Amino acid sequence: MDFSMTEGEQAVQQLAEQILGQEVTAEYLKEIEARDQRFDQRLWQQLATAGLLGVAIDEAHGGMGFGFETLCLLFEEAGKTLPPAPLIPVLTAALTLQQFGTAAQRERWLPGIAAGDLLLTTALTEPASDDPCTPSASLAVNGDGWLLNGCKHMVVVADQAAAVLLSARCGDELVLLAVDPAANGVSLVAQAVTTGEPQFMLRFDGVRIAGGDILARGADAHCALQSLLQHTLVASACMTLGVTATMLALTARYTTERQQFGRPIATFQAVSHRAADAYIDVENLRLACQQAASLLGKQADATQAVMIAKIWASDVAHRVSQSSQHLHGGIGVDRDYALFRYCLWAKQLELTLGGGNAYLMQLGDALAEEFKQREAEPVRNSDAA
After folding, report:
1. Torsion angle, alpha carbons of 347, 353, 358, 363, to 10
2. Strand runs labelled E in the chain
3. Are the beta carbons of 191 and 201 closer than 8 angstroms?
4. Within a 13 Å sphere around the CA of 280, how many CA atoms are in the beta-carbon half?
5. Phi-psi region of 91 (alpha: psi -120 to 50; beta: other; left: phi over 0)
6. 119-123, 220-224, 369-373: lowest mean pLDDT where?
């Protein structure tokens, strides 16, 4: 499989690197943190003006028309700089809407997302479940519409979003719908998270849902939610790649400058070995991300590739963060030094939508089932003969 970048992908990566590299400096992030303002509308509009919010949105709706692989380059660059911008939930919501929404729904939201004028976000988890396909939130038929009841949490920028994509059960049927967080019956409670990102718990108490708010039902909803979950997992893995690559770069620079016994500590065998292990981890994560993003971009079966990317992302986030802190010594926790931000994001990304061990168990079950089916195939052929 050829993972070399096209000219378009290179242009998008360079543009993202240029804007985020110039705007999201250490001084800028300190100012944002001091004001406790974790969403910068000015930066968001800059990304929109440059066309980056519409990278994977069709040209008919104001986007660039590139695929998911190209969008993942933006997520990786975001991991390198940690901008106060909800790129993953907004842009994965746009992808889901583009693929599974109606023509009216696409026209209603996609141009605004590409232009930076409105936000869509996603509510994928509930307090008791990380799987959007097994929600406890429920829809009850009411006249010519429905009433929504239930709870979702860890919803990014819910206070500023025009709509939240979420799942609910209507009897035995799974439903994917868009809900206005400002609608009657919706209550928002701010949640404290590791990175300080603006996340909220949403409670729904008899929220009126119209037919135009339904994106998919039944098997179509299951397919749409699986797609949304997989794209979100890979987007998070790509951001983890940017985070860990930057932690590794900071560590390499520090260990080549820090002297002990008259020479840089990078020349010590134990230090170089641990740094080498971290480098191998980051490059393995890169390959796992590229594989999963490529398959999703082609709308091929990416189930196992996505699980592998998530497993690597969780493990690498933990190991590289630990190695970076160890090799930096006490300076790694100094809030005047950049490393602490990347360690916070590494921990949050490690556990986003479940830890690596949960996906490792799922992958093991899937491989075991696949092996059973292959073992049974000769027996069926023999019986048929």
Report:
1. -120
2. 120-123, 138-142, 145-156, 163-170, 173-179, 186-191, 199-209, 214-217, 259-260, 263-264
3. yes
4. 6
5. alpha
6. 369-373
Quote the pTM value.
Answer: 0.94
Strand, helix or coil at 150? strand
Rg (CA), the chain: 22
Question: CA nearest 165: which of 219, 109, 239?
Answer: 109
**φ, ψ of residue 273 in degrees (nearest 5):** -65, -45
String of DSSP letters for 18-77: HHHHHHS-HHHHHHHHHHT----HHHHHHHHHTTGGGTTS-GGGTS----HHHHHHHHHH
pLDDT of residue 382: 47
23-41: pLDDT as tens digits = 999 999 999 988 877 899 9
Q: Where are the beta strands (DSSP E) in 214-331?
A: 214-217, 259-260, 263-264
Strand partners, 203: 151, 187
Name the residue among 313, 296, 302 with its Cα closest to residue 69. 296
Confidence at 84, pLDDT banded by 50, 70, 90: very high
**What is the maximum span of the chain, computed from C-alpha positions, in angstroms?**
80
The proportion of the chain whose per-residue pLDDT surpasses 70, expressed as a percent, equals 97
Going by the DSSP 8-state scheme, the letter that residue 266 receives in this structure is: G
Pull the structure tokens for residue 148: 């929504």
Whole-angstrom distance, CA of residue 49 vs CA of residue 179: 27
How far apart CA 176 and CA 305 sit, in angstroms, is 24
CA dist 175 and 106 (Å) reads 18
- How far, in Å, are 77, 79, 194, 290 from residue 31 at the CA level? 21, 19, 18, 34
Q: Which residue has the tokens 């990566």?
A: 13
Distance CA 61, CA 110 (A): 6
